[in-house]
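User: I'm putting together a teaching handout on how multi-component assemblies are represented. Below are the sequence lines for each component of a complex, exactly as they appear in our records. Could you produce the 3D structure of the whole assembly as structure tokens, so the students can see both representations side by side? Please keep the chain order the same as the input.
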Amino acid sequence: MINLVQNEMIKLVRKKRLLVVTIIMAVLISMFTYAQFRESERVQERLGTTDWRTTLQQQIIDIQNRLSGSQISDEWRKQLEIRVSQQQYYLDHDINPAEPGAPTFVRGFIENSIQLLLPLMIMIVAADLVSSEHSTGTVKILLTRPVQRWKILLSKYLTLVLSVSFLLLMFGILSYVISGIVFGFKGWNAPVLTGFTVEAGELNTAGTHLIPQWQYILMEFGLAWFVSLVVGTLSFMLSVLIRSTAAGMGVMLACLISGTILSSMVSSWESAKYLFMINLRMSDYLQGMAPPIEGMSLGFSLSVLAIWAAAALVISFVSFTKKDVY
Amino acid sequence: MSDVTLSVKGLRKVIGKREIIKTIDFELKKGEVFGFLGPNGAGKTTTIRMLVGLIAPTSGSIKICGYDVSKDFTKAMQNIGCIVENPELYPYLSGWENLQHFARMLPKMDEERITEVVNLVGLQERIHDRVKTYSLGMRQRLGIAQALLGKPQVLILDEPTNGLDPSGIREMRQFIRFLAEKEGMSVLVSSHLLSEIQLMCDRVAIIAKGKVIHTESVSALLSQQERLIWRLVPHQTGVNMLKELTDFVKEEGESVITFYDDSKVGEWNKKLIEAGVTVKEMNRKLPSLEDLFIEMTGGEAID
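Assistant: Of course. Below is the structure of the complete assembly, with chains in the same order as your input.
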């Protein structure tokens, strides 16, 4: 089995897939770092101060102004109200939610990329793991070796797990290093509040507690790893079922994008919460944001995603071992 | 165990409602080159895919060195090497890396065996270049090297000379004969060209519409089927003489066609000359595959 995984890793590396994805990440991170930098400059100019309390106060006022406007949907209003009370809580307890430094950037960046960016990167790697063997025709040699088919597929899946882990590691390292150059590398121990729960549109602060930022980031990375693995597994299944890499990628892309669109408009369609793409924003649970649909929780999303991934794995293995290869 | 290395019994494949392969039976013996002759769409490639486990047969059994392909897949595959259709390898890896890749999938792997097969197919000079820079002939050779890695008893080559130039075809033929005679392998070669089968095979199975319609040794097939084309002057005298000498005489425009009979042709020629008939041309000719089919299936078209 180690031999088989080694084979798959060699192919993946020689196809330069990992390299390409890493470069894309580096470019994007640099862009976001620059954007973030300009943003903080602008805020400083406007408020004429570097004190975060003033900034936070200003943000609260901004949101309240928007809330008083009449052109605002109920869901959006709820979201904003929760955010205000959260920020008020930070202000009251004298905690800077955006302690400057690379770790804060990493934290914010992973929160923003968990739903779309990371899954897309993973998809690039996962979508052609199996289908590329079909398009080059090498599947015929691969499957006529004295190795059972399920072992071949398992070696490919293990390769996927390894690549997902590798890419997340690179994601962390790259965003830390690149943003660190601009914002400084400090801030691992800055306190972060977590444990907010949202019940019936109200922010419940009973369970909140402070944890050091590094711990919070670790938790986020754990969730991001899980989300990436689930998306990877689904792309993997499509790669087994659909022999064309492009078609497989297209289907996955459509799902992911519809997920981002849906999560902002499905609060009345309750059964949508069983769709995998609605459950990808798992870091929101740590932050205490209102979930897109009432009744969703961290445990709920974890189980929904786990079930999707398990089903995808079963389908992949059954199909791969039974299917005739032409 | 006997010297049968591959045995196929009652092989059938139904896809949807269509019966693609009706009944295929044949056996391969140690050290022989076996031809699989049939027009495109006859079911050659489908059969080969079933032999190597890419497609599951609807019914029938395939045994490689005594191991059933569907029940004992791993053991059966250890005894077989194959190229199905084109030799497709990873273009972004070098030839050597491709071989390493497939060697890792075998129970025993050592660099020596890789060097050995590379030397066998004569790819030493370019083996460390990427496969995408290879010519078709080189890919074909690399494909064979890959198939030989596990020292198989049975080698299956689907249209091995497809796309090669004349010298490449000749080399390939010699190489296949070498593998059978010197290495004692059974080689199954598929082709749609009778001339090719004639030059490298010991026995041949002719298949059409998913059925084996004839299995025979190549020499026997040729002695029955090979024709001789005569051009004689004066034409009519010659035709009449030939009719006395042999049963089958067919006139076709200026020429006369008889069967080719190695032991008698010289005699016929002599008699014609003695009778004052000028033999302007004597030409041995293989019937086309189409003629052969028409004869064997009793005039049914190939389609």
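A couple of points students might notice: The two ends of chain A are 26 Å apart (CA to CA). Chain A touches chain B at residues 3-4, 6-7, 10-11, 14-15, 136-138, 140-148, 322, 324-326 (CB under 8 Å).
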